[in-house]
Design brief:
With 566 residues, the chain is mostly helical. It contains 20 helices and 5 strands. Strands 2-1-3-4-5 form a 5-stranded parallel sheet, sandwiched between helices.
C-alpha cells in the first residue's frame, strides 16, 4: 500500500499459494528428496547417503524439505491443518497430461534435456525465491487501514467503473465500447467485435443505420463499396436479411476460464514460456479465453487450448455461418465470479442502441455462482426470492435497451454433481486426487464451489436442489411475463447427458469435458459440446431467434473473403 503497511494476506490464499509453489518446486527439482528417501525403503545406509546428498546440495534445493505440505509449515505459511497430500502416501509424480497444441505456447511441455545432478532447476530456484518473498510479506504485513492509499492523486474511480466494474474496453478512443488497438486483451477485441474506426462513435459492429457513403464500412462487417451500377454491397447482400447480433452476459464459464494445466506440473514448465508475452496476454484477459468460448469463440482450433482433433463451435460462429452480415457483431461480457445478484453491471456494459442497431440474441448465462462459493453451508447461496428480484431487474433493464424483435435466452444453473462424479477418481495436475484437492481448498476457505466440489454427497445433493429451485424462477418468469422488445426463451443445460453422449459416441472419458486445473469449468471440448447442444435447441425450438439463412452468403465470401478477420 502507498504510505502505509501492506495489507494482511488471507491465510487460506497464502497456504494454498504456498502449496502450489512448493509442489512445483519439489516436483521440478532434479533431486526430489522425499522420493529418494522413500526409495530407500528404510535401509539405513541408503537413508544416510540421501542425507549426505541433501547436505551437500545448493541452499535452494536443500530448502525443499520432506513434502510440499511440510515445506509450507516450516516456513510458517500453513498451520498444518490443511494438507494437499495424504501424509502416508505423499505426492504421486509425475502427472501425465495430454499433449498441448504447439501454437498454444504456454502449454508446451518443457523440452527434454539433461539436468545437473544436484543443482536446482531454474523453475525450482525461481519458486524458492517467490516462497521466500511470500514469507517476508506475511511477516511484515498489517491490516490495511482507511487512508493508507491517497486516492486523490489518481483518477481511480474512472478506471474502476469503466474497466473493473462495467467491463468496458480499457482503450476506447471514441467511446462506443468497442476497441481497435493492441492485442485484443483488457476487454478489447478478444471480447467484442473489433472496431473498424476508433475515432468515429457512429461506426461499430451491429450498427443498422448510416449516413456514410458506400465506401465506409459503418457496421464493421467487412462489407463496403458498390457495384458498377452504384448499388452498395451492404444494401444488396444485407438489407432485408434477418441479422442478429450476439451478447453473452455471464460468468467465468461464459468467459472460458482456463488455467493451463502445464502451469501446475513441473513437467510442463519452461520458465521462458511461462513468463513469456503469451502468458502476459492470458493474464490481461483475466485468465480467460473468450475467443475460444462456447458463446463468442471465433479463433481456429489450433489457436485454442487443448483443442486438437476437432472443430471449435460457438453460438457466434453458428450465427455468422447463417448470415455473413453478422460478422464481428458479438460481445462477451463474461466475468469471473458473476452471479444474478451482480448481473446489472453486465447489462450496463452492453453496447446497443435500440433505434440505431440490429436486433440481438442476448444470452444470460449464470450457471453456478449463485450456489457456488468458498463458504461452508448454504448461508451464502442466493435465495429464490433474491434470485427472482435480481432476474426481473436485469430483464427489465434489457427490455429498455435491446432493439425490437430481439430475443433473450436465460440459461438455467447446471446440476454440478456431474463435476465430482466425473473427476473423483482422477489425479489433479499437482499430484493429489481431486477429492484431496477439493478438501484442501475447502479447508483453506478458497474452494470455488464448496457445495459441489465436496466429498459429502448430502451437500452435493442439497446444492443441486437449490440450483434447480433457482432455475425454476426463470421458467416461471418466461411463462408469466411478456416483454415489449424481446421474446424470452429458456434453456436448462444437461451436462450429464452431454457427457454421456460424448462418451458413448466418441469413446472418450467424462473428465475430458472438464478443465483439469480446477475440476470445475468446462474444458475446451466442453465448450464446443455445450455450444452445439445449445445451438441445436435454439435453432429447433426458436428459429426466429437466429434469423433465416442469408441467400447471399456465397457472394459475400467471393467478394470479401474473410471480411477483414478479427
Amino acid at each position: 500500500a502507498l504510505g502505509g503497511a501492506a495489507a494482511s494476506p488471507d491465510p487460506g490464499m497464502v497456504c494454498s499459494g504456498c502449496a502450489v509453489l512448493s509442489t512445483l518446486a519439489q516436483e521440478g527439482a532434479p533431486v526430489p528428496w522425499a522420493r529418494l528417501r522413500d526409495a530407500c525403503e528404510g535401509e539405513s545406509a541408503c537413508l544416510k547417503a540421501v542425507a549426505g546428498f541433501k547436505a551437500a546440495a545448493s541452499p535452494a534445493s536443500a530448502a525443499l524439505g520432506e513434502s510440499p505440505d511440510e515445506v509450507c509449515q516450516d516456513m510458517g505459511l500453513c498451520d498444518g491443518q490443511c494438507l494437499l497430500f495424504d501424509p502416508e502416501l505423499g505426492p504421486a509424480w509425475p502427472v501425465d497430461l495430454p499433449p498441448a497444441p504447439p501454437v498454444w505456447p504456454v502449454e508446451e511441455p518443457k523440452p527434454a534435456g539433461a539436468e545437473p545432478a544436484v543443482a536446482a532447476t531454474p523453475l525450482t530456484m525461481r519458486i524458492v525465491e517467490l516462497l521466500e518473498s511470500l514469507g517476508h510479506l506475511v511477516a511484515s504485513s498489517s491490516p490495511l487501514k482507511d487512508g493508507d492509499i491517497d486516492c486523490d492523486r489518481f483518477d481511480i474511480e474512472c478506471v474502476v467503473l469503466r474497466f473493473a466494474d462495467y467491463h468496458y474496453p480499457l482503450v476506447d478512443r471514441d467511446g462506443d465500447r468497442f476497441n481497435a488497438y493492441g492485442y485484443g486483451t483488457l476487454r478489447g477485441f478478444h471480447w467484442r467485435g473489433k472496431d473498424c474506426d476508433a475515432k468515429e462513435d457512429a461506426i461499430y459492429p451491429g450498427r443498422k443505420s448510416s449516413s456514410f457513403v458506400d465506401d465506409v464500412d459503418y457496421d464493421c462487417n467487412g462489407i463496403s463499396g458498390s457495384d458498377a451500377s452504384g448499388v452498395s454491397y451492404e444494401e444488396q447482400f444485407c438489407s432485408g436479411t434477418e441479422r442478429r447480433g450476439l451478447v453473452i452476459l455471464g460468468d467465468s464459464a461464459t468467459a472460458h476460464f482456463h488455467v493451463p494445466p502445464a502451469w501446475l506440473t513441473a513437467n510442463g514448465w519452461d520458465p521462458e514460456l511461462v513468463f513469456s508475452n503469451q502468458s502476459r496476454l492470458l493474464i490481461e484477459d483475466e485468465v480467460d479465453v473468450p475467443y475460444c468460448s462456447w458463446g463468442t469463440g471465433h479463433f481456429d482450433a489450433e489457436s485454442c487450448p487443448y483443442a486438437f482433433g476437432y472443430n471449435i463451435s460457438s453460438i457466434y460462429k453458428f450465427l455468422k455461418g447463417r448470415n455473413r452480415c453478422n460478422h464481428r457483431d458479438f460481445q462477451n461480457i463474461g466475468v469471473n465470479g458473476a452471479r444474478i445478484t451482480s448481473s446489472m453491471p453486465l447489462v450496463e456494459s452492453m453496447a446497443r442502441d435500440a433505434e440505431q442497431d440490429h436486433p440481438l440474441l442476448v444470452i444470460l448465462s449464470l450457471m453456478g455462482n449463485d450456489v457456488c462459493n468458498g463458504h461452508p453451508g448454504s448461508d451464502h447461496m442466493t435465495t429464490v426470492d433474491d434470485f427472482y428480484q435480481h432476474a426481473m431487474e436485469s430483464l427489465t433493464a434489457l427490455d429498455a435497451k435491446v432493439p425490437k424483435n430481439s430475443h433473450v435466452l436465460t440459461v438455467g444453473l447446471v446440476d454440478g454433481r456431474v463435476l465430482y462424479d466425473s473427476m473423483y477418481q482422477k489425479q489433479h495436475p499437482l499430484g493429489p486426487t481431486y477429492p484431496q484437492f477439493y478438501e484442501f481448498l475447502s479447508c483453506n476457505g478458497v474452494n470455488p464451489c464448496w457445495g459441489w466440489l465436496n466429498t459429502n454427497e448430502t451437500w452435493r445433493n442439497f446444492t443441486s436442489e437449490r440450483a434447480a429451485n433457482l432455475t425454476q424462477v426463470y421458467v416461471d418468469i418466461q411463462a408469466n411475463t411478456t416483454w415489449e422488445n424481446f421474446t424470452h426463451i429458456h434453456y436448462t443445460p444437461d451436462f450429464r447427458a452431454l457427457i454421456d453422449e460424448y462418451v458413448a459416441d466418441y469413446g472418450g472419458e467424462a473428465s475430458d469435458v472438464i478443465e483439469p486445473s480446477d475440476g470445475f469449468h468446462p474444458s475446451q471440448l466442453g465448450n464446443t459440446l455445450f455450444a452445439q447442444a445449445m445451438w441445436d435447441y435454439i435453432r429447433t425450438n426458436y428459429p426466429d431467434a437466429v434469423g433465416a439463412i442469408n441467400p447471399f452468403n456465397d457472394d459475400i465470401d467471393r467478394l470479401f473473403g474473410d471480411q477483414g478477420g478479427y
